[in-house]
Amino acid sequence: RHSPHDTRLAMSMNAAQPEVMDVLPHGRALSAAKTAGELRRAERLRLRREAKVAERSAKAAKAAGTRNATRATHDIALRRLVFVVCLQLGHAIILPSSVRPPSSIKLRSAKPKQYQPTRQEDGHGGAQQHDDHIVATARQDRVLVAQSQIDGLNDQIVTTYRKWAPVVTQWATFGGISAAGAGAMYLGGATWLGGPAIGVKAAKMYLTATASGTAWTLGFTGLFNGGERTVKSMGGTVAPPKVANLVTSTAVKAGLEEVPTAWLIPTDEPNAFAAGSWPGHGVVAVTQGLVDTLTTNELHAVIAHEIGHISHHDCGRAIQTASMVAGLRSTMRVGWQLLEGKSSSKSNQDDEDSSVAVGLLMVGVGSVSYAGSSLLVGREGA
């Protein structure tokens, strides 16, 4: 038999048992929900990683396609540029020999034909013959252009050609060499140094170095190193009357508007030269050794040769040629300065690598351009 206390204990235990049974399944449900959340979170992370990988792959493929397209475009542009430069250089080389000599360029006016009646016209009567003779005489008296006007036009054409054709051809050759160098700098920078933007900067640097070197040399030589300054720097003095008279008479016969001054260089070496690129500032200098060695006729021949240089503007073209060569050579100096600055610089490594690459490119392209300047020297000598 159970006591009332035992009965109450059993009832309390039976009442508490369902609560214990409810607690255990609820804990398992929370654990399962937590695990499912972690799985969903892991799945989302995995999908994000896969999306990022796919996006990176797409960007890489797009960049590779763009790089290939850019490279193809650069190859086409390079072919076109080489073709144009070859045409320009070929024109510069062929033009002097292919053009007829200026002395052979003549325009002839057609002489009016004299009227001569035929036998058939003689048989038609005197009236018809008289009318034809009047018409023919009217045609003879009608002159469109006089022969003197045509000769004057020929002289103007010859003078203009001789004066400007060599200058235009020389500057066109210089422009072709500079354009080829700038194109090579652009293609090299765009292909090896990081893209078209770097190529444009490299081409601008090349053109700036070339233009500044040419302008500086041309201005300094033309303004501060004229004919008289050159002669005085060599110790020259005013030539004696014998030499001065020969220079004056030869210049007048050559048709020069301004007679160059005559100078004597006190040296035993037999030599002579002409200098001065500005009108009215030409000089003809001979050495004392040349005056003592040659006879008067021989000295006259040498002076005539130097007057010919002034008449054909060879002195000015020589200064232009030297300035162009100096401008093309200045690109090499800029490249060497970039390479030397890298060794003494302590800046960022990326900047140093970029400077080295640009410097090497400038030296390489500048060397080829400087070698191409032999075309300018050959044209000036022609």
How does the SSE layout of this entry go?
Elements: H1 4-98, H2 119-122, H3 126-141, H4 147-192, H5 196-224, H6 227-233, E1 237-238, H7 241-254, E2 261-265, E3 272-275, E4 283-287, H8 288-293, H9 296-311, H10 314-344, H11 349-372, H12 374-381
Parallel strand pairs: 2-4
Antiparallel strand pairs: 1-2, 3-4
Write a short abstract of this structure.
By secondary structure, the chain is mainly α.
Describe this structure in words.
Helices cover about 75% and strands about 5% of the residues. By secondary structure, it is mostly helical. Helix 1 packs antiparallel against helix 4 and helix 4 (about 145-190) runs antiparallel to helix 12 (about 375-380). About 20% of the residues are buried. Mean pLDDT is about 75; it is low at about 15-25, about 90-115 and about 120-125.
